[in-house]
Design goal:
The protein is mostly helical and about 110 residues long. About 60% of the residues lie in helices and about 5% in strands. The longest helix has 15 residues, at about 15-30.
């Protein structure tokens, strides 16, 4: 039996209150994760990047602020998918100060 199957079996036996407690725990554990976004020490200076790439989220946001459309970005970065941009924009909304700081630091460099 896989872990997922075990978890499903346990969920079936839980009360609604226990499920709510588990959901709160999962939300806390996953609160800092963003699907499709990775921050790896030693890769792009640890900046948040699109998974499978070395494209920093701040770079995409900077391009968007300068007028690039999603279509422009997808043409400029052929490895990107529309889903990647959606994930990037969600990350930007949740980490505005981090992204603003990265843009400022890279403009000053």
């Amino acid at each position: 039996m896989t872990r997922i199957e075990e978890a499903e079996h346990l969920l079936d036996a839980m009360t609604p209150g226990e499920k709510a407690q588990l959901l709160q725990r999962l939300a806390r554990d996953l609160g800092s994760s963003f699907p499709g976004i990775d921050s790896v020490p030693g890769v792009c200076g640890g900046e948040a990047c699109i998974s499978r790439t070395r494209i920093p989220v701040w770079l995409l946001e900077q391009a968007r602020r300068q007028g690039a459309t999603e279509a422009d970005l997808l043409r400029s970065y052929p490895t990107l998918r529309a889903e990647d941009l959606s994930n990037a924009w969600a990350y930007v909304r949740a980490h505005r100060a981090e992204i603003d700081g990265a843009i400022q630091a890279n403009e000053a460099a």
